[in-house]
């Protein structure tokens, strides 16, 4: 009940005219930039970060949440009408949505996706309201060693769970940690990797790193390999659903969030796995299994609901533990740091107005998005016609605006370009970008917690593992690290047993 | 005789080059290694006697990160020599079958650097418009009437929205002084 009261207070914050305006502006910008092909939610929030610089924190995060959800809504439009998913989580929407659009059922596909996002976001955010205060109160007593353990978990998870190659993930993380080292040491004021430059003594701003790696790196990479032939978006009318379609979609809308939410909360790659799981589930449960692959509406409804719910799950870990599980959460964490706010269990106590205003604005944003997307989908679809030179020139333009707005210095633009070139090289050689961003954002904080913990224990390493919480987290870390070994062992045992069985049947026969 | 002796040498030279091109990822290992050396050297040259507070000083983490970079550089080299390859990232506008278009990348880099230099003296509206126009040109847009108009419109619009509505100051430059 306590959280219900707080939520009502939150609505009081979110529904003030100014904050309502920021929410509306956020969902508009988010949808627009999400519809643009080639821009995923992570790049969208990184590019739009400077828009919020002049606002107070509450208004900024309300706008930010709108951008996040809006980018996800808009992304499915691109997948369905252009068959070009902007990010891995939208791949599934393209599998069924694009054949539907080609078969003249684009309007239904868009409606199933939009309502799916709405249902997923609503259910996910309700779960967030119920769970987040509990998680926060469980974690309220945590200290330096526990924070350090969580950050180690984030580092390990982001390098081990995601991506094809662990060693390349770790290389990326170390690049990020190195960039994070630049500047004055927080505890002693010692200069590190500044090479005597006054500008570098302030460190490299995380916004510049995020924009450089996500936006500049991507734009340069695409420029080097620009596809000359262009796909044509499929024209579409106003989204609507008939009764027969509704009968097929309401269950997937409810099932998707159940799959999506828990996966968002754990560091397992965000919406990619749950959307796929939801797709497989719907395929298995559907009465129209033969339609899958040719445009089954269940295959749009379920995964899209799962994607939105996983975004809400992401917010649970981000707000209560300060643990970013996706690229978008990492950028949001950077935004919190801009305002000097540390997400974590104390956030709910220290900044109740901000947190509950943010959560309430998620509900508001969801309603706005549904109202925006259902009738206006054909208008948004027009954005798909923007020529690609303008699209990527625009990305470079807004990246420059963002980096310059940080401190008003043109040297920042040069640093941005250098980091963009690093991002280009990383894409060329299959180094994932996310570990580097997490390294820059969490690296300095992790070092501080480590040193604080060891200061308390007077240098004894046991100071890092003297709480049940930290021991639990390290156990999870060990499990993640050892997982490939365990998997191999299980496979070998199973293989051995199978071989033994075959032997016995052979000898028996 | 001389041609005979140079031919095999040339052939072996080109095979070395092909071998290296196949394993260009080794360059990443070299860079990681160099970065590791840089971090370690920086940590070693730190003057920490006065600054040390608590059991862990400002050098410890750089030591760990630097050593980690050296280790990962070596492990990645082993992986590449064993035939491991980093998979180049795909995408909706990315065509990996074509060779990389370095001219476009260089042009974009140049345009971006020029904008970084010009934003101080010329202000944001002009430098931003040049950035957009130049980038669109580098990316293959050839509408000589439309491109600069869109660039100027976008740049001015962004300047007014940020500077007046959102409260994020951008330099107006001489152009805004005239208007």
TrEMBL record, chain A:
Segments traversing the membrane: 20-49, 61-82, 109-132, 138-162, 169-186, 206-224, 315-336, 356-377, 389-407, 463-486
InterPro entries assigned to the protein according to its UniProt record, in alphabetical order: DUF112_TM
DUF112 domain span: 20-437
Pfam families with a match to the protein in the record: TctA
PANTHER family listed in its UniProt record: TRICARBOXYLIC TRANSPORT PROTEIN (PTHR35342:SF5)
This protein's record includes keyword Membrane: yes
Keywords assigned by UniProt, alphabetized: Membrane, Transmembrane, Transmembrane helix
Organism lineage: Bacteria, Bacillati, Actinomycetota, Actinomycetes, Kitasatosporales
Protein name (Swiss-Prot/TrEMBL): Tripartite tricarboxylate transporter permease
Keyword Membrane: yes
UniProtKB/TrEMBL annotation, chain B:
Residue stretches spanning the membrane: 24-44, 56-78, 105-137, 149-170
Superkingdom field: Bacteria
Keyword Transmembrane: yes
UniProt keyword terms in alphabetical order: Membrane, Transmembrane, Transmembrane helix
The DUF1468 domain, residue ranges: 28-171
InterPro entries: DUF1468
Protein name in UniProt: Tripartite tricarboxylate transporter TctB family protein
Organism, as annotated: Streptomyces durocortorensis
Organism ancestry: Bacteria, Bacillati, Actinomycetota, Actinomycetes, Kitasatosporales
């Amino acid at each position: 009940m306590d959280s219900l009261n707080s939520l009502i207070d939150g609505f009081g914050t979110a529904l003030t005219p100014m904050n309502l305006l920021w929410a509306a502006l956020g969902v508009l910008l988010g949808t627009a930039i999400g519809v643009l092909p080639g821009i995923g939610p992570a790049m969208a929030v990184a590019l739009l970060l400077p828009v919020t610089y002049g606002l107070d924190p509450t208004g900024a995060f309300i706008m930010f949440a709108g951008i996040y959800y809006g980018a996800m809504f808009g992304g499915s439009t691109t997948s369905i009408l252009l068959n070009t998913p902007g990010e891995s989580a939208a791949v599934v929407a393209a599998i069924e949505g694009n054949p539907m659009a080609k078969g003249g059922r684009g309007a239904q596909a868009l409606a199933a996706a939009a309502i799916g996002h709405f249902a997923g976001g609503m259910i996910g955010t309700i779960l967030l309201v119920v769970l987040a205060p509990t998680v926060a109160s469980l974690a309220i007593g945590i200290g330096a060693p526990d924070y350090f353990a969580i950050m180690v978990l984030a580092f390990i998870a982001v390098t081990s769970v995601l991506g094809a190659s662990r060693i390349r993930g770790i290389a990326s993380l170390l690049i990020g940690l190195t960039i994070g080292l630049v500047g004055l040491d927080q505890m002693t004021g010692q200069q590190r990797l500044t090479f005597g430059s006054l500008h570098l003594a302030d460190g490299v701003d995380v916004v510049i790193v995020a924009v450089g790696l996500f936006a500049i790196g991507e734009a340069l990479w695409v420029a080097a390999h620009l596809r000359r032939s262009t796909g044509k978006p499929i024209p579409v009318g106003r989204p609507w659903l008939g009764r027969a379609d509704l009968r097929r979609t309401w269950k997937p809308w409810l099932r998707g969030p159940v799959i999506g939410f828990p996966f968002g909360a754990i560091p397992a790659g965000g919406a990619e796995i749950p959307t796929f799981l939801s797709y497989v589930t719907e395929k298995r449960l559907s009465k129209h299994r033969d339609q899958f692959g040719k445009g089954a509406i269940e295959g749009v409804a379920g995964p899209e609901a799962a994607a939105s719910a996983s975004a809400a799950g992401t917010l649970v870990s981000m707000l209560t533990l300060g643990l970013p599980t996706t690229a978008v959460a990492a950028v949001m964490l950077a935004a919190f740091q801009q305002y000097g706010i540390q997400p974590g269990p104390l956030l709910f106590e220290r900044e109740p107005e901000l947190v509950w205003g943010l959560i309430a604005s998620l509900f508001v944003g969801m309603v706005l998005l549904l109202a925006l997307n259902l009738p206006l989908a054909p208008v948004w679809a027009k954005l798909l016609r923007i020529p690609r030179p303008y699209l990527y020139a625009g990305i470079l333009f807004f990246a420059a605006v963002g980096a310059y707005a940080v401190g008003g210095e043109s040297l920042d633009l040069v640093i941005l370009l250098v980091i963009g070139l690093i991002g280009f090289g990383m894409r060329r050689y299959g180094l994932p970008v996310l570990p580097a961003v997490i390294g820059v954002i969490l690296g300095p904080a992790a070092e501080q917690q480590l040193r604080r913990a060891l200061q308390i224990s007077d240098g004894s390493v046991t100071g890092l593992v003297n709480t049940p919480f930290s021991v639990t987290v390290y156990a999870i870390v060990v499990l993640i690290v050892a997982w490939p070994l365990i998997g191999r062992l299980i496979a070998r045992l199973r293989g051995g047993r199978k071989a033994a069985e075959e032997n016995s049947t052979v000898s028996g026969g | 005789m001389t041609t005979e002796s140079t031919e095999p040498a040339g052939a072996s030279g080109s095979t070395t080059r092909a071998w290296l091109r196949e394993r260009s990822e080794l360059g990443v290992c070299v860079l990681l290694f160099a970065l590791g050396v840089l971090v370690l050297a920086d940590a070693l040259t730190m003057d920490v006697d006065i600054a040390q507070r608590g059991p862990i000083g400002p050098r410890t983490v750089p030591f760990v990160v630097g050593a980690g970079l050296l280790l990962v550089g070596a492990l990645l080299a082993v992986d590449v020599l064993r035939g491991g390859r980093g998979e180049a990232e795909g995408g909706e506008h990315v065509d990996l079958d074509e060779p990389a278009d370095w001219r476009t990348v260089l042009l974009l880099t140049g345009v971006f650097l020029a904008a970084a230099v010009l934003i101080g003296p010329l202000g944001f509206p002009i430098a931003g418009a040049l950035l957009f126009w130049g980038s669109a040109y580098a990316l293959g847009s050839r509408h000589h009437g439309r491109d600069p108009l869109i660039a100027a419109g976008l740049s001015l619009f962004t300047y007014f929205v940020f500077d007046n509505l959102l409260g994020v100051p951008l330099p107006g430059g001489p152009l805004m002084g005239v208007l």
